[in-house]
Design a protein that fits this description.
Layout: H1 14-21, H2 31-60, H3 66-70, E1 82-84, E2 105-110, E3 117-119, E4 123-124, E5 137-146, E6 151-157, E7 160-165, E8 169-170, E9 177-179, E10 184-190, E11 196-202, E12 214-219, E13 247-248, E14 253-254, E15 275-277, E16 282-287, E17 301-310, E18 313-318, E19 323-324, E20 335-338, E21 347-352, E22 357-358, E23 364-365, E24 370-377, E25 382-385, E26 390-391, E27 399-405, E28 411-416, H4 419-422, E29 425-432, E30 437-440, E31 445-446, E32 457-460, E33 466-471, E34 486-493, E35 498-501, E36 506-507, E37 514-520, E38 526-531, E39 546-552, E40 559-561, E41 566-567, E42 575-581, E43 587-592, E44 608-615, E45 620-623, E46 628-629, E47 636-645, E48 648-655, E49 668-675
Parallel strand pairs: 1-3, 4-8
Antiparallel strand pairs: 2-12, 3-5, 5-11, 6-10, 6-12, 7-11, 9-10, 13-49, 14-49, 15-16, 16-17, 17-18, 17-19, 20-21, 21-24, 22-23, 24-25, 24-26, 27-28, 28-29, 29-30, 29-31, 32-33, 33-34, 34-35, 34-36, 37-38, 38-39, 39-40, 39-41, 42-43, 43-44, 44-45, 44-46, 47-48, 48-49
Length: 678
């Protein structure tokens, strides 16, 4: 997969669709054929939209009156239909259910004659087998429940319920424990916080006596500690249990309003820099599409949070007020960065690539872009400007598309992905304490190829003397290849006031977007690079994505690969849309974006975050726990950050399209932790 070059005909981006339209020849594209093609497209769209909608309505149809069901014995046309689900089935269509703290809440009353049969390939755990008389095909319905850390009390009348884990494996709970007082079946268990459970409700045979339906209810009482196993879950998550898997340590931090894109960015940005975290567990998160005031629509907003240990729990508090954009549609917070090595001197930088301004002739110049830097004042609990605002030089350059601060916040790198016909550039600044202003150091580092987008992703080391620059649309012209992508690493020479190339230029294979994301270790000797479009050599897998890690060889001066590349498992996962290294460079976290059929259609899912730890003895990157899966289409993993302190690894992950507790698409960031043995 490293050596062979491949090209991909599949396009999920708008540019690809536009290019393909140009293939239609002029003689063909006459008025008559336009009408025919337009009619065909309309019919196809009707089928695409109408059929899934009809199926969804049919699957979710309910009847709130069981008495009506008793009087309705007429056969239903769907009564004998069978849907076969396997373990790759999409669980996003399952209704998500919640429960009250103290009392039972009726979840569903369903006319089973309106439901369909499911051939359910249940698996089992702990060598627990299903009873021999369990039918393989039954009439029923699926639900999803996400654990809150409470006990779970499920009651079902006139039917049977099975409780399964997120992989649809039976948990071995007693399915039909009869409560003699109610005459209904009961399941009682302790739910783990953030764990996904699936419930399958059906009748015990294919021709039950009571065909009219069932009543299904839940309650979530507090649990008492158990004598066996780990500590009993509580309503709020704790971090007292050491595990070899990722645990969500506090509730998600949601955006404020629908469409804020908290923890991510708009489709035309697809920035992977909306979240950052320092070694003190202080987190900065951008909501680039937020409208903080009525006259500041889509101005953008940034919030700074701190994770602190509070007894046996983790508390999440906000530092200072919200930082908001000054003008509508400027998307303040597209990129963010935080100084990494101090709790007492916190510096943050925020980019607004869509910032526009009038020139001295009164002409509006769009997307010049600008960057603002702030310092936290502890005694007033406020954020004050740290130097003047930095503004781009020319229209449409998108100055501030990415930003990166060094360890103490005294050096700032700013990327402009569209500078000079999208060649892109990076400018580095140093804070002058005497005049309290930012001054450029060295010349701009400008891309040398149109449309290469150098500066789309950038990263400074802790000292601020080494900078990595990704240009994901760089073409390897000598090999007649496009969208290879490249990464260049520069080191600052203070005597000459210049940035000099450090080692060799790293170039990806064709159609891989190598350099879409980059991140340096603290000392700048190791770099992680994402190539979100890379696939397999034989083209059987397309755009699964990859991550490669390189180490600077002090003897040869070159960047040598560390371990084998890390690849996505399936087509269109786009692993490498974001990458972050731990301070020592031995842990790498990578996000997979997932896919969608076309730019105007929703995201399908398939998004996740995977974390790997380097094993020097075997020179391999080994997975740290299971991948963290996003909800369907929430774009979890588009941005992320990682920190490591004394064996404790923490991970912050953005999900730009996540639904909040009221099913509003605000976006969010989520917090995870694992204990590392290194």
């Amino acid at each position: 997969m490293d050596d062979e070059v491949h090209s991909i005909a599949l396009s999920t981006d708008l540019e690809g669709i536009v290019q393909k339209q140009s293939i239609i020849s002029k003689p063909f594209w006459n008025k008559r054929n336009k009408i025919i093609v337009s009619t065909c497209i309309s019919l196809i769209l009707i089928v695409i939209i109408a059929v899934p909608s009809a199926l969804l309505r049919k699957d979710l149809s309910t009847n709130t009156s069981l008495q009506n069901n008793n009087n309705n014995n007429a056969p239903h046309p769907n009564r004998e239909k069978t849907i076969i689900y396997n373990h790759d089935m999409d669980t996003s269509s399952f209704p998500q259910i919640k429960c009250n703290q103290d009392s039972h809440k009726i979840i569903d009353e369903i006319d089973m004659s309106l439901s369909v049969k499911y051939q359910v390939p249940f698996c089992s755990t702990n060598n627990i087998d299903f009873p021999q008389d369990t039918p393989t095909t039954t009439k029923g319905k699926w639900y999803t429940y996400v654990g809150t850390g409470s006990c779970l009390d499920i009651r079902i009348c006139t039917a049977r319920i099975r409780l399964l884990d997120k992989d649809r494996c039976w948990l071995g709970k007693q399915d039909t424990t009869t409560n003699t007082n109610s005459g209904c079946n009961v399941i009682q268990m302790e739910s783990e916080y953030g764990e996904t459970y699936h419930l399958y409700v059906d009748f015990e045979d294919d021709n039950p006596v009571n065909t009219y339906g069932f009543v299904f209810s839940l309650a979530c009482p507090d649990c008492e500690p158990t004598a066996v196993g780990i500590l009993a879950p509580t309503i709020a998550p704790t971090i007292s249990v050491i595990s070899n898997d990722w645990k969500e340590i506090t509730n998600p931090f949601y955006g404020t309003n629908n469409g804020d894109y908290t923890g991510g960015s708009l489709d035309d940005h697809l920035s992977n820099s909306a979240v950052d975290m320092n070694q003190e567990n202080i987190v900065i998160v951008g909501s680039e599409n937020a409208s903080p005031k009525p006259d500041l629509e889509n101005a953008g907003m940034v919030q700074i949070l701190q994770l602190k240990q509070d007894s046996d729990r983790v508390a999440l508090t906000q530092l200072g007020p919200n930082l908001i954009g000054d003008y509508a549609e400027h998307h303040f917070g597209t990129s963010v960065s935080i100084s990494s090595n101090s709790e007492n001197n916190i510096i943050v930088a925020v980019g607004s690539p869509d910032f526009g301004i009038e020139n001295d002739k009164g002409l509006f110049q769009s997307k010049i872009g600008h960057v603002r830097v702030f310092q936290y004042i502890d005694n007033t609990q406020d954020w004050l400007p740290f130097g003047s605002d930095l503004i781009g030089d020319s229209p449409e350059e998108e100055f501030g598309f990415d930003v990166s601060l060094n360890g103490d916040g005294s050096i700032l790198a700013v990327g402009s992905r569209s500078y000079q016909q999208k060649k892109g550039c990076v400018q580095i600044y140093q804070y002058n304490v005497n005049i309290q202003e930012w001054e450029s150091i060295g010349s701009k580092i400008v891309g040398d190829q149109t449309d290469s987008s150098d500066g789309r992703s950038i990263s400074l080391d802790d000292s601020g003397s080494i900078v990595a620059i990704g240009g994901p649309h760089y073409d390897d012209i000598d090999s007649f290849e496009v969208d290879n992508g490249r990464v260049r690493i520069y080191e600052y020479n203070s005597e000459l006031d210049s940035w000099n190339l450090k080692g060799n230029v790293l170039i990806g294979i064709a159609d891989s977007l190598f350099g879409f994301s980059v991140h340096l270790s603290q000392n700048g000797t190791r770099i992680a690079i994402g190539a979100r479009w890379e696939g397999s050599n034989d083209k059987s897998i397309v755009r699964s994505g990859s991550v490669r890690i390189y180490q600077h060889n002090v003897f040869s001066g070159t960047w040598d690969r560390v371990g084998e590349p890390i690849f996505g498992d399936s087509s269109l996962e786009q692993l490498g849309v974001s990458v972050k290294l731990s301070a020592d460079g031995n842990i790498v976290a990578a996000g997979a974006l997932g896919s969608r059929p076309a730019p105007f259609l929703p995201w399908n899912g398939g998004n996740y975050v995977s974390v790997y730890q380097y094993d020097e003895t075997g020179s391999v990157w080994s997975p740290m726990g299971k991948s963290i899966q996003g909800e369907s289409g929430d774009r979890l993993g588009e941005s992320l950050a990682v920190s490591q302190n004394e064996g404790q690894v923490r991970l912050v992950v953005g999900a730009a399209l996540a639904l909040d507790e009221n099913d509003i698409k605000t976006g969010c960031i989520r917090f995870f932790e694992m204990q590392s043995d290194k």
